[in-house]
Amino acid sequence: MIVSWMWLHCTSLGLLTIFFEIKKTAFLGAGKPPMFGDYEAQRHWQEITFNLPVRQWYFNTSDNNLQYWGLDYPPLTAYHSLLCAYVAEFINPDWIALHTSRGYESQAHKLFMRATVFIADVLIYIPAVILYCCCLKETSTKRKITNVLCILLYPGLILIDYGHFQNIYNSVSLGFALWGVLGVSCDWDLLGSLAFCLAVNYKQMELYHSLPFFCFLLGKCFKKGLKGKGFVLLIKLACTVVASFLLCWLPFFAEREQTLQVLRRLFPVDRGLFEDKVANIWCSFNVFLKIKDILPRHSQVIISFCFTFLSLLPACIKLTLQPSPKGFRFTLVSCALSFFLFSFQVHEKSILLVSLPVCLVLNEIPFISTWFLLVSTFSMLPLLLKDELLMPSVVTVMAFFIACATSFSIFEKISEEELRLQSFSVSVRKYLPCFTFLPRIIQHLFLISVVAIVLLTLMTVTLDPPGELPDLFSVLVCFVSCLHFLFFLVYFNIVIMWDRRNGRNQKKIN
Amino acid sequence: MAALGFATGGGSWFSALALGVTLLKCLLIPTYHSTDFEVHRNWLAITHSLPVSQWYYEATSEWTLDYPPFFAWFEYVLSHVAKYFDQEMLNIHNLNYCSSRTLLFQRFSVIFTDALFVYAVHECCKCIDGKKSSKELTEKPKFILSVLLLWNFGLLIVDHIHFQYNGFLFGLMLLSIARLFQKRHLEGAFLFAVLLHFKHIYLYVAPAYGVYLLRSYCFTANKPDGSVRWNSFSFVRVISLGLIAFLVSALSLGPFLASNQLPQVFSRLFPFKRGLCHAYWAPNFWALYNALDKVLSIIGLQLKLLDPEKIPKVSMTSGLVQQFQHTVLPSVTPLATFIGTLIAILPSIFCLWFKPQGPRGFLRCLILCALSSFMFGWHVHEKAILLAVLPMSLLSVGKAGDASIFLILTTTGHYSLFPLLFTAPELPVKILLMLLFTIYSISSLKTLFRKEKPLFNWMETFYLLGLGPLEVCCEFIFPFTSWKLKYPFIPLLLTSVYCAVGITYAWFKLYISVLTDPLVLKTKKQ
């Protein structure tokens, strides 16, 4: 036992070192007036929340110019900023003085901002990961620790949270969501739903995960019988959710206009189907057909909604009918992926919301998960290059890959059974007896994809794009990643849909 | 796919460790670098643009070439790669030049030359006998040793943050030690001779090499009671050793001897004009001596025993390399330090001669030589502690007693390196890395020797735990007190005195263990 604790300790310390290193290498847009980069956004929110009354936080007033990094996250983010602002005020009031502090930058302040991310990370995200891995069943202690290592080493989150310094507190919302998953899977449903409500109230993007949570809990209630215990549980859950939302939104319920304004800030429908280059369907499809310009905005919203809804419907229904923690984790992946691929106004960083549940299934399907996590980091390449994070990205991706490859020995786990495709192939073989080549195909696909990723990265870094196509490489990156994500969506849906039969077959065999 | 298979195979934990630390080194590239960065850039420029005869005369920059010729040739080779990165860094008059390409080149040159170190560690691991090997990989002595060496905190911060080329030099040293363990004595001697001409600081441990090779290689047999059998002396072996040493020296110093530059070279290599202690006192005997002098002078002033007029106004830790006048105690001359070092080394050498215990005995003597010179040497750098720490890692996985000495020495020695990195952004990195290494070394060695008595007694535990509050006081509390302006040297003084106590203790304990170790007769040798 001592040994395992020691490893845990050293692992986390080592990771913290890496975090700090990456933080130092880059600060997006630091020192570039007039917008001063996203670092300024975080500081500005502290300034706003500290100096203005709650009523004005989300409104455009003479003191609060919403064009200048206006607050566009739910109340919990604002409260967090306020908390940080109190600490900042204690250390140096200049950091958050109204108006005069715009574009403030100093060594000490940077250290302070880093420390806030770091503390949030240590308090919320890391304990959740460690606890989650400790609760894994049927695994040795060593395996649990390597699992912690691999999850914490996931390059995407490290790079975005510590290098990019935009939405720096991703790990807070993801950490809350993870606490939610943990609670719900361990049958502490109320705590789990409370944690998840906090996550949603921290970042509205967490709604990507909301459907699986809803379906899983509903399924649990059904299972217990809607007329007895299940009904009580349902009522309790509803009360928890409503109460936690009420608590978070209390200051904004005073006036109707307040609530609406916050909602408008949270869901800016007029920003279009997508911004920049995102590895989702709409952006990739845009190469062939400019949907964004052809269709009116409201039909864009409807189309994206329909696609999203249809793509996640089967998995959700399955989860409601047969709720199981394992199915829940896979559904989290597929739903988040559907949202990422089809929904309206997606940002590159939203892939982190898919990566988190994928990290959770790392233990079950190491090969596919590692592959997915690599691709997800690759899909953020244009963003990372913009922040001059090439070196840290390469280093962390390699470290992550080596860690996964050595601790899960992923290349030996490509049989049908390890890929969770056994029952699928069995049912296909009823019609196509020669259907035995699936694992081999997946193996080849992996090799092709790795080669493509490496080549594209090298090209993006070394070659200058031709004059008439300045975005050539970033579009290619998005397109390739999008193909990958579609493949993963299909894969995860297959795994989910054929899951139960697999269990029965195994029982028969046993 | 070859690389993938390389990383995934069952016995590839070593490559995983090496790759991991290499990746960490890459992350350290943008961190703070000291003036040594400019020193090495200047040497690149000197060796690239001047003929050999000018190398040791060039003095445009204050950082003149003061390493032996092989290192100059090493810089010469590097400079031919450097020109493809940035031609400007090879200009002698381009003082303090640091473009991003220069930075990348210099940092990567350290990382690449570390390959030799990795290889040497690999060889050293083979020499460790795996008697105690347990099934668990992480409890194998080989694994622990390779982590202790590859992830050594001191080497990481001195080479990859502070900037120096110690990695491959220590690689040479470890490799020569490994060769001696493998009974390939000539090879070991050759490697050490080459090493000496790379960096002359390794002269500190030369006595151990000389005596060991003479005693255990040139004399081929022992008497039954373990003493030397004089008639077993092998002239062939002596001559071959001498030839190796002579040829290597001739290759290195020959060109300078031919052009009559040898005195100039030596005056550069051994600058006795520098003070007894470095700007920051290395935690050795002289740090304690200076501190005692300060205390005595303060007491003297308080009791009116000393005349304030006569006290020199120069404070030793004010940041300049300068001569220092002791107030109460007698001043120390280079000769005195030399004699002190010699006296400190002698018992271990005698021990090596009269109680030969094979390569392990040699290794102990080597560490004692390094530590003794560190304790009493003239103008010792705090970085020199690595000379004892790295070989000591080899011993630490063998015996519980050695492990305990190693832990005290390493933790204290590494902590004493903290003042090297004084910039705020490096603060978290150095603390975290230090914690990482210390916690790992303590807990892994504790598990390795869990069946024996505890590694530390209460006093040692108390001392090591005291490092924590000391760090908090020096880095977090002191800057906010009013003493910061009046006595800026107090943190450095405290650090070096506190560490000096620990290192002296470790030195003492190691000496006692070597001297009291019973003689093990090796019968199979005869």
Walk me through the structure.
The complex is a heterodimer of chains A (510) and B (526). With 510 residues, chain A is mainly α. Chain A has helices at residues 2-25, 37-51, 75-91, 107-134, 141-152, 155-164, 170-185, 189-202, 210-224, 229-249, 256-266, 281-285, 291-294, 297-321, 325-342, 351-360, 366-379, 381-386, 390-408, 422-429, 438-462, 472-497, 499-509. Helix content of chain A is 69%, strand content 0%. Chain A is built from 23 helices and no strands. Mean pLDDT of chain B is 83; it is low at 1-10, 314-322 and 522-526. Chain B starts with a helix and ends in a 10-residue tail after the last helix. Chain B has 526 residues and is mainly α. The interface between A and B is medium-sized, with 35 and 35 residues.
Determine the number of helices of chain B (DSSP H or I, runs of at least 4 residues).
21
The residue-averaged pLDDT of chain A reads 81
How many whole angstroms does the radius of gyration of chain B measure? 24 Å
Q: State the helicity of chain B in percent bands.
A: 55-70%
Q: SSE string of chain A, helix = H, strand = E?
A: HHHHHHHHHHHHHHHHHHHHHHH
Structural class of chain A: mainly alpha
